[in-house]
């Protein structure tokens, strides 16, 4: 066996959590080995956030063409050129991938290509070569989960295969009404497909505030996207023309394809974690608030850590772990302050506590909410979008949750996260001057109203 090479940090996995750890650690003067068996950038860059958002932008362009006469523009929608769409999507990914490769190379990080396995608490083995780290960071990411009784293949696909489809399905079933499910449902509907979503829980995007879920359901209904709520998957069979799904209620649904979007599982099996004493819970790596596993100097980041499975969370955790290893003693990350965005039409964005969570934490009498309808916002009127800003605050205290629905509200969550994370009171935000006419102004007006001085309220 070749001699072992030693580094300050060995990172297993080159996705958002892994490459952020590597880049920050190298910036802080530490020697770093980054092990990745696929392409640097992981799920988010190659099979997740970036390519799906490219599809969603194309869907927005399709809708704009279809509805152009509303705005006095004569354009026609003649269909989707899937080859050209794939070239656009792949071009976006390729550009970001090249940039990331350049960053890793410029920082002097040793990139190790191949399948890595933890063979001791401080050593990762890749193809017979051993890389020892004074610190080891596990960042092996996630995979598309399925359910018992569902065989992926043919017309039964996950988001990975959905991104590579070279045709627009005439009809599609989407199993799972969470973020991934509603985003694909939105895209396919914009592209002209008939879409049905099936969600076992009582609402679409069930992790969001109830008012947000109901607003998205109304919008989907208006767009002609069907959905079945509170009914579970029982079985699926391929038919001559596609797939037939049977639910526990006995209801059957037919379509050309079935997208299985029931969440993502942690990629931790067979990597030597448990053999080295790293504790797993349903496949997730158990860590303390400092992302330490309790074994040696082994840390974990990203989708394998229980909590929100978001690229920006993994990225922040990677920076945090690198700074901790370097002795900077950063403050632990507050998960409730991480923003969440669903890029469907309409978009959903939120940060902080839902109304229900706030009432459970602080008590019914200690919570106050306010809804500000975008119908009163000039920019939203111009964009012909509907939706609202919902604020959740502790009575006579700070805003603890901001929930948004409408076109482009993902771009508003930046100010919302500052409000929640800096524990701003409504009057603090009301005193700030928001540009007119912007949708951002709706955040300002909502806080004015919550501070007791609504400008556009009807007496």
UniProtKB/TrEMBL annotation:
Organism: Luteimicrobium xylanilyticum
Location(s), subcellular: Cytoplasm
UniProt protein name: Dihydrolipoyl dehydrogenase
TM regions (residue ranges): none
Domain of life of the native organism: Bacteria
Keywords assigned: Cytoplasm, Disulfide bond, FAD, Flavoprotein, NAD, Nucleotide-binding, Oxidoreductase, Redox-active center
Cofactors (names): FAD
One Gene Ontology cellular component annotation held by this UniProt entry: cytoplasm
Statement: the UniProt record of this protein carries the keyword Lyase: no
UniProt: NAD(+) binding residues: 176-183, 199, 263
GO molecular function, one term: dihydrolipoyl dehydrogenase (NADH) activity
Class in the EC hierarchy, top level: oxidoreductase
Other noteworthy facts: The active site is a redox-active disulfide bond.
Record domain Pyridine nucleotide-disulphide oxidoreductase dimerisation: where: 338-446
UniProt family annotation: Belongs to the class-I pyridine nucleotide-disulfide oxidoreductase family.
Cysteines paired by S-S bonds: 44-49
Enzyme Commission number(s): 1.8.1.4
